[in-house]
Amino acid sequence: KALEAETTAGETKAQADYELFVKDSNNLIKDLQTAVASKSKASAAADADKAQASADHGNTVGELESLGQYNSDLHGECDFVLKNFDIRQKARLQEMEAIQKAKAILSGSYAK
Predict the structure, then answer these.
(1) What are φ and ψ of residue 33, in 5° steps?
(2) Which end of the chain, N or C, is less packed with Cβ atoms under 10 Å?
(3) How far does CA 4 lie from the centroid of its chain?
(4) Which of the pair, 83 or 44, is modelled with greater confidence?
């Protein structure tokens, strides 16, 4: 009888240990599934952020290229103005002298 009681007690303890193991395993699996879902959601959010950042980068690069072209165009225009400044200034001075001469002729005070 003692052997039977000991065997029954051992079997009951083994059953309780097994149930505890299954319970702990199920809790662990549940926690790991929650962690996987959370990490999957974070990964998806990171992918979306990366896609948005890539699009923003592309737009910024395009805008910088456009601004670079605009800068180049302005530089060319300024170079043209600076290059021809002396010629234009001389032409304006000649125009002013001609206007003064015309005014003098029209007022009758021009001496040849």
Answers:
(1) -65, -40
(2) C
(3) 76
(4) 44
CB of 110 within 8 A of CB of 101? yes
pLDDT value, residue 110? 62
HSE-up (13 A, CA, CB side) for residue 71: 6
Identity of the residue numbered 22: V
Q: What one-character-per-residue DSSP string does the chain give?
A: -HHHHHHHHHHHHHHHHHHHHHHHHHHHHHHHHHHHHHHHHHHHHHHHHHHHHHHHHHHHHHHHHHHHHHHHHHHHHHHHHHHTHHHHHHHHHHHHHHHHHHHHHHHT----
How sure is the predictor about 2, in pLDDT bands with cuts at 50, 70 and 90? confident
